[in-house]
C-alpha cells in the first residue's frame, strides 16, 4: 500500500493547513502567555486525525477513577495527573477516546490543564497548531534548560527562562484549586527506547506532588506518533495503532509521599531523587498492566493496516507538488499531440 495515495494522507494535508491558519498563540518566548486556554477551532480537527489513526479496539480501563478525579477537582481539591509519555499524540488520543467512548465524562476534559514544554510552541507552526488545541501552562522542563557549557547559553537567556518558569508556577498555583486538573509528564520528555533514561521521572516531580491534594497515575501502551530520530517534532511519524490507557485510583498526595519516605534519605536531594525513582517504578509497573490488556487486542489488528503515515506538512506538500508537476507534464504532452494533429490537417 502506498501511503502517499491513502485518503488519510491527503486528509491530513488539508487539516494541518487549516489548523495552522487557525493558530492564535505566539511562538516568541517574550510574548508567550504562561496560561493558554485551548484553541477550540482546532480541537475537532485534531480529533479527525486521531480517528483516522486509532484502531476501534482502543480502550480505557479505570475510567471510573477518571470520574473520581474530576469530582475531586470540582470539590476544590488540587489534583495532579501523572501519565507516561511516548508521543505528542498521547493526550490527543486520550481526549478522543473519552469523547467518543465515554461522552458522559467529556466535560471533565475541559478541567485538564497540561504543563507543556515551551518547545511545543517555539519549534514549528505545525507543532504549535496541534499543541494549542489543549489547555496549557507553558514551562521550560529541566531537561530543556541550557547549562553554562552549552552553545547559545547566556545569563540573559537563563534569566529569561527562570522568569518564564516562575510565572508558569504562579499560574499553576492559582488555577489548581479552581476545579482544574493539572497534567504533568513526570519524565518531561517522550520515552525513546534507544535512551532508557528518557523514561525516568525528573527530581522536580517530588515538589509538584507535594503541592497537590491528590495524585493520579495514568499508564498507556501504544503509539500513534513515533519520535523521529532527528528530533524534529514536525517530522514525527504518524501510524495506526491500538491504544490502551489505564487510570489508577487517585490517592492523597501525602499518603503517596509517605510510601516513598520509607526508602528515602533525610537528605533533601536524595529524597527528591528517591521520589522520582519511585514514580518511575510505579508508572513502569502500571505500564506492564496496560501492556497485558493490549496484547490480545493487537492480535486482532489487520496486518494490511499497519502502514505508517507521515504527518509532516512539508512532506505532504512535496508529494502534492510532484503530482501537480506530473499533471503539467501530461498537459504539455497532450497539447503538443493535438497541435501536431491540427498542423497535419
Topology (SSEs and partners):
Blueprint (H helix, E strand, L loop, with lengths): L6 H16 L12 E2 L3 H14 L5 E3 L1 H12 L4 E5 L6 H12 L4 H4 L2 E6 L1 H4 L2 H7 L4 E4 L15 H21 L5 E3 L21 H6 L3 E8 L3 E2 L10 E3 L4 E4 L3 E2 H9 L6 H31 L9 E3 L2 H32 L1
Parallel strand pairs: 2-10, 3-6, 3-7, 4-5, 4-6
Antiparallel strand pairs: 1-5, 7-10, 7-11, 8-9, 9-12
Helix pairs in contact: 1-2, 1-7, 2-4
Description of the structure:
The chain has 345 residues and is α/β, with parallel strands linked by helices. Helix content is 49%, strand content 13%. It has helices at 7-22, 40-53, 63-74, 90-101, 106-109, 119-122, 125-131, 155-175, 205-210, 253-261, 268-298, 313-344, and strands at 35-36, 59-61, 79-83, 112-117, 136-139, 181-183, 214-221, 225-226, 237-239, 244-247, 251-252, 308-310. The strands form two sheets. Strands 1, 2, 3, 4, 5, 6, 7, 10 and 11 form a nine-stranded mixed sheet that branches. Strands 8-9-12 form a three-stranded antiparallel sheet, with no helix packed on it. The radius of gyration is 23 Å and the shape is globular. Mean pLDDT is 84; it is low at 1-6 and 312-324.
